């Protein structure tokens, strides 16, 4: 196993760091408070090759490996989680097109995302179906050379800013197998009958757009089907090991960003005639924070490497990484606020935002309880 960041990507990460300091951090709190999608930053990120970085060169990307994407994800989320989620989620749904889509679909939908001209999303969850993906009720019926889609999708990242979505639909309610009657279909947001209602008041990740999608007799061409009909559920399940390692990398970045700010604050803030870092209680907090971050980093990168190499234990490791790194993110951001004291309770300091942003890493892409169930299942199988 080799988790060392290659020299070429170290240069990329340094460029990302400078981009973050100059362009992202100055407006991060403002975008969070206004729940504003950072369109200008997205354009700059696309110019730097940060969007769709895993796409092959022929489709506008730079062909990053999963481990290279994990390095990039950690770096971005250590700068500002909300903006980082916008950048890393602009290509949501692309994995299905890359793995199962036609060449025409790849040529049509991927390059505009990589260049920043389009935003896409994956529409899976519904008001009554979050972790239980097989309970979705959105229907797609074939009508000649069209699919007619009806239903609601909930908690959809990029929902009100996206240009197209890979939508998981039920296409065969009478399928003999429980998971065999679902398909993935590309739906453009400018289709008649498509509507999106932005969800506001989120606890964190407020710069990132989240919406409910309403599909009312939305008609799309038959060729918008991704892969085989009724194979959508199984297609989707193939990506959870990858996406969970990416959430682990997100959580790792959040924890690191909060810890670095807490360390800096502790070295500057004076109380009782010395800096906070001179107190053993603060030293112990910092020691535990950075130790847990390093443990999360090793587990996250090992899991990412395992998924990429196709190891037999990649499912359990990706769930372990997601569960542990997200727990570390919540714990570390909590301690970062504690070190800041009253200053950490207001948005004058970044740790307040990091604290709120951390929680979602324990919820999306499979809640903590789901991850523990998967780990136990793999152990007992």
TrEMBL record:
Keywords: FAD, Flavoprotein, Oxidoreductase, Plasmid. Pfam families: Acyl-CoA_dh_1, Acyl-CoA_dh_M, Acyl-CoA_dh_N. Belongs to the acyl-CoA dehydrogenase family. Residues 231-380 form the Acyl-CoA dehydrogenase/oxidase C-terminal domain. Coiled coil: none annotated. InterPro entries: Acyl-CoA_DH_CS, Acyl-CoA_Oxase/DH_mid-dom, Acyl-CoA_Oxase/DH_mid-dom_sf, AcylCo_DH-like_C, AcylCo_DH/oxidase_C, AcylCoA_DH/ox_N, AcylCoA_DH/ox_N_sf, AcylCoA_DH/oxidase_NM_dom_sf. The keyword Aminoacyl-tRNA synthetase does not apply. It comes from Haloferax volcanii (strain ATCC 29605 / DSM 3757 / JCM 8879 / NBRC 14742 / NCIMB 2012 / VKM B-1768 / DS2) (Halobacterium volcanii). Residues 7-117 form the Acyl-CoA dehydrogenase/oxidase N-terminal domain. GO terms for molecular function: acyl-CoA dehydrogenase activity; flavin adenine dinucleotide binding. Transmembrane segments: none annotated. This is Acyl-CoA dehydrogenase. Residues 122-218 form the Acyl-CoA oxidase/dehydrogenase middle domain. Its cofactor is FAD.
């Amino acid at each position: 196993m080799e988790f060392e960041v290659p020299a070429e990507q170290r240069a990329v990460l340094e460029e990302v760091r400078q981009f973050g300091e100059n362009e992202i951090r100055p407006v991060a709190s403002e975008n969070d408070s206004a729940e504003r999608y950072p369109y200008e930053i997205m354009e700059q990120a696309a110019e730097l090759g940060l969007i769709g970085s895993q796409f092959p060169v022929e489709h506008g990307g730079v062909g990053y490996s999963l481990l290279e994407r994990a390095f990039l994800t950690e770096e971005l989320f250590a700068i500002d989680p909300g903006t980082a989620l916008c950048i890393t989620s602009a290509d949501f749904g692309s994995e299905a097109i890359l793995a199962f889509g036609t060449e025409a679909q790849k040529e049509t939908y991927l390059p505009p995302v990589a260049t920043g001209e389009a935003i896409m999303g994956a529409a899976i969850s519904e008001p009554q179906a979050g972790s239980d993906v097989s309970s979705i009720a959105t229907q797609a019926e074939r009508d000649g050379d069209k699919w007619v889609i009806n239903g609601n999708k909930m908690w959809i990242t990029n929902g009100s800013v996206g240009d197209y979505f890979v939508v998981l639909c039920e296409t065969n309610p009478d399928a003999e197998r429980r998971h065999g009657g679902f398909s993935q279909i590309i739906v453009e947001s400018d289709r008649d009958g498509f509507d999106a209602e932005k969800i506001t008041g989120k606890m964190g990740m407020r710069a990132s757009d989240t919406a409910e999608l309403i599909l009312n007799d939305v008609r799309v061409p038959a060729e918008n089907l991704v892969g085989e009909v009724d194979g959508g559920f199984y297609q989707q399940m193939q990506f959870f090991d990858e996406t969970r390692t990416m959430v682990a990398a997100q959580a790792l970045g959040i924890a690191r960003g909060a810890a670095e700010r807490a360390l800096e604050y502790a070295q500057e803030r004076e109380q009782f005639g010395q800096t906070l870092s001179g107190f053993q209680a603060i030293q112990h907090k910092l020691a535990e924070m950075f130790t847990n971050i390093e443990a999360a980093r090793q587990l996250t990168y090992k899991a990412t490497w395992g998924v990429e190499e196709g190891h037999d234990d990649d499912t359990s490791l990706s769930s372990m990484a997601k569960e542990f790194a997200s727990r570390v993110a919540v714990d570390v951001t909590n301690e970062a606020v504690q070190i800041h004291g009253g200053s950490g309770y207001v948005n004058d300091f970044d740790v307040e935002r990091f604290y709120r942003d951390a929680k979602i890493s324990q919820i999306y892409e499979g809640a903590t309880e789901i991850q523990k169930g998967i780990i136990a299942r793999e152990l007992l199988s």
